[in-house]
Amino acid sequence: MKDTYRHKGLRNQLVQEIKRKGITDTKVLEAIDTVPRHYFFDSAFTEQAYDDKPFPIASGQTISQPFTVAFQTQLLEVQPGDKILEIGTGSGYQAAVLSVLKAKTYTIERQKELFHFSQKTIRQMGYKRIHFFYGDGYKGQPAYGPYDKILITCGAPSLPEKLVEQLKPSGFLVAPIGSGNIQEMYRYIKNEDGSLTEEKHGSFSFVPMLKGTNE
Ligand code: SAH
Most buried by CB count within 10 Å: which residue of 32, 132, 161, 203? Predict the structure, then answer.
């Protein structure tokens, strides 16, 4: 697949659109401007890659809406070298955005097909510092923790305890919480004594965070 001037132009329009919708972090906007989102789409659908919309991918899952990716990334306040745990690799697009921001990303997916597909895409694109795991995100990945930031990209019915344990003091955990079709975006900040300060950041709609793996 190629990244043509047309794709770059469409991507730039998308960046202007999410800026109008309230994304202010210039590093995040630059990252969205950098990552060719159409590489994560089946070649029949690349025309839709620069609409600010979620889109179906394999295994009945979705690639999140660009605004949502930018919004969650902005809440993470990514610093170069941050160790970030992502729950829900999906297409791998969010992980690519974190790679552009120079984070070290550990990403978990429970659908085998997506676990393979996302790695293949990311390898072809050449993004570095991304480690892929097939497993249940509810368990996190304690062997590589604790993490500076944790990002959940599926709707969690409640805040998963094991993930809180794997967050560093002063770390951020960004997660859509809620069991219905609509979740509330939360940012939790871990205090030195282990308690959490929580902030609410509006309503979003994600595919559900499910228990176990698909096999
Ligand atoms: N970050 C992704 C968004 C994918 S949608 C992207 O940029 O494309 C959310 C993903 O979370 C789905 O792929 C779904 O399979 C996955 N998921 C749901 N429950 C999970 C769990 N318990 N552990 C790991 N991944 C999970």
Answer: 32
Identify whether 64 is a catalytic site residue.
yes
pLDDT at 183: 98
Q: Give residue-wise pLDDT tens across range 129-151.
A: 999 999 999 999 999 999 999 99
37, 53, 64, 153, best to mutate for ligand 1 pocket (most atoms within 8 Å of CB): 153
- Which residues have CB under 8 Å from 186's CB, separation 6+? 159, 173, 174, 175, 176, 177, 198, 199, 200, 201
191 C-alpha vs ligand 1 centroid, how far in Å? 27
**What domains lie within the chain, and their CATH numbers?**
54-204 (3.40.50.150)
User: What pTM value is reported for the model?
Assistant: 0.97
